[in-house]
Amino acid sequence: MTKQDMIDYLDSSMSEANLEFDWSIEWKKRLNVIEVTFTIYAETEPELVIQDVEGTVNTENIIQFEDAICFYDPEKSKIILDDYLAVFPFDLKKGIEKGYIDAFIKMLRIVVTEGQSDLLDFATDSTIETFEIEWNQANFNQTIQTFKETNRYNMEKVQYPKF
To answer: Is residue 89 part of a domain?
Structure first.
């Protein structure tokens, strides 16, 4: 049996979690980055006009929201951290603990589920002017702590993929 790397572990764990939103994993080899992108949708009221940050106005009665989270090596990755909902450093040589990824997936489910609810409200209520998803780092840190206290934090590391 071949050993799982970060991408394999992320992919299999996210698949097993049966997340109720679209997601994808992209390995940007040259940047030493693994991106997890998610997409949510909401049906809008026919008379409601919604404009995104780039000025595009919805022409159909459905809106789509996409965001990304990044796993990166602080030493080698050349990325703009503010371009992501959340960023998670890892060591290029040592990898990252499975428990950390498990906590990430649990928190991702919560954040995106809340985001989906907020997007539905935004898409149907003209009094709500903006929509944004927020990553709660304190809750993420607490999830890791809870996993550790309940012996559900897996210390085994998964390595960054080899070229």
So the answer is: yes
Task: Give the SS3 label for residue 99.
Answer: helix
37 contacts 28 by C-beta, under 8 angstroms: no
Domain that holds residue 120: 6-158
Asked if the structure places residue 1 within a domain, the reply is no
Tokens encoding 154:
């897996």
Domain containing 31 — which CATH number?
3.40.50.11250
Number of domains in the chain: 1
Domain assignment of residue 55, yes or no: yes
The predicted pLDDT at position 124 comes to 87
Please indicate, yes or no, if residue 125 is contained in any of the structural domains. yes
Residue 52, pLDDT > 90, answer no
pLDDT surpasses 50 at 1 = no
- CA 31 to each of CA 3, 70, 82, 124, 157: distance values in angstroms, whole numbers, following the listed order: 23, 11, 16, 39, 21
Q: Interhelix angle for 98-124 vs 6-16, to 10°?
A: 50
pLDDT 10s digits, 125-157: 889 888 999 999 999 999 999 999 999 999 999
Measuring CA to CA, how many Å separate 77 from each of 50, 60, 104, 106, 151? 35, 38, 20, 25, 32
Instruction: Tell me the residue type at 81.
Output: L
